[in-house]
Amino acid sequence: MIKILDSNRAKIIEANKKDLDLYDPTDRAMYDRLIVDDYKIDTMIKAVKEVKDQEDPVDKIISEIELENGLKIQNKTAPFGTIMIIYESRPDVTIEAAVLAFKANSKILLKGGKEAINSNLVLVECWHEALEKHDLPTDLITFLNMNRIQTQEFLIAPTEKLDLIVPRGGEKLIAFVKEHAKCAVLISGRGNNFMYIHDDAEWEKTIEVMLNAKTQKISACNALDKILINKNIDQYSSKIQNLRQIFMTNKVELAMHSSLADVVPSGNSFEKEEVWEEEFLSMKAMIGAVESIDEAIEMINMYSGGHSSIIMTEKTKAAKKFMEQVDSAAVYHNASTRFTDGGQMGVGAELAISTDKLHHRGPLGLEQLVTNKYYVFGDGHVRD
């Protein structure tokens, strides 16, 4: 597959150009997710190499015990079986999801978005060529070219047994899958990530982390959207004005919440409360003020997508409290949310960032793409 991807660069980029010609040029986040260039192909090849070099995750002993009655019991990792992933925009998922499932001894059904159809079809052709070279059935990696109605019908009455579905996209997609699926669904949740600036936060460090989290890649689910600043921070008013200027300089649209009315010049518009729940996926951020770390934790747990949250503080005790009490898959102390990524966290290629608490939370890499099975060895044992 590595060789096939490398030798088909021109064909892949040409197919991607057909998709790009149809996209909305005002949607920068979509463009970031959709584009395939030589760099993107390099990252696809890197993902395949990383997974190839990882240890086989199947048939690993989790635990083993011999009971007093002589029964020997092993708990070992096992393949899921058939995994379906539903995703939007990103052709690189066609590579990462498939290579992970293949290595984990599972079949995968790829339901990519219509906006990347030409790119995805070529990439699946590459997969099938690789499988055929090793006399393996091509239906191990299957692309489902379905519209919304056909997808709904497939979820309600699948033509084959499904063991796990991973919807990777916005809230509407996730709700759609949860409504119709008949098997286990692992949620790759929305972002809407928060930063809380504590009253002792080091300001230059805070600005650097904030800008990276907000602007480094706006299309990512780990991008920053909301900022809560403690009103007791030194030079509170001037720091609010400083934030406004910094975001303006970096071309980030800023929504100032009404909690900042005492320091924001008159005429500045205040957003409605429901905006706290919105994932922007754009050069937009929202700032609000809180009286305490407890208020910040309460707001984050109420409004965020449960993905990634940051506290900026020099107080270890405050950081510990925040990280223990904020209900997110990843919690950060003085670091950007952009690190919530399989490669950045040492997991390697990922299927998704799970915001579920079962079966796994956080980057869903190769080791997490298995279930388990008990092997019980006896010699005519019967239970009394």
From TrEMBL:
GO molecular function: glutamate-5-semialdehyde dehydrogenase activity; NADP binding
Keywords: Amino-acid biosynthesis, Cytoplasm, NADP, Oxidoreductase, Proline biosynthesis
EC assignment: 1.2.1.41
GO biological process per UniProt: L-proline biosynthetic process
Highest taxon listed in the record's lineage: Bacteria
Cellular component terms (Gene Ontology): cytoplasm
Enzyme class: oxidoreductase
Residue span(s) of domain Aldehyde dehydrogenase: 68-239, 274-341
Coiled-coil region(s): none
Associated pathway: Amino-acid biosynthesis; L-proline biosynthesis; L-glutamate 5-semialdehyde from L-glutamate: step 2/2
InterPro entries: Ald_DH/histidinol_DH, Ald_DH_C, Ald_DH_N, Aldehyde_DH_dom, Glu-5-SA_DH, GPR_dom
Catalytic activity of the protein: L-glutamate 5-semialdehyde + phosphate + NADP(+) = L-glutamyl 5-phosphate + NADPH + H(+)
Compartments, record wording: Cytoplasm
Annotated family: Belongs to the gamma-glutamyl phosphate reductase family.
Its biological purpose: Catalyzes the NADPH-dependent reduction of L-glutamate 5-phosphate into L-glutamate 5-semialdehyde and phosphate. The product spontaneously undergoes cyclization to form 1-pyrroline-5-carboxylate.
PANTHER family reported for this sequence: DELTA-1-PYRROLINE-5-CARBOXYLATE SYNTHASE, GLUTAMATE SEMIALDEHYDE DEHYDROGENASE
Name by which UniProt lists this protein: Gamma-glutamyl phosphate reductase
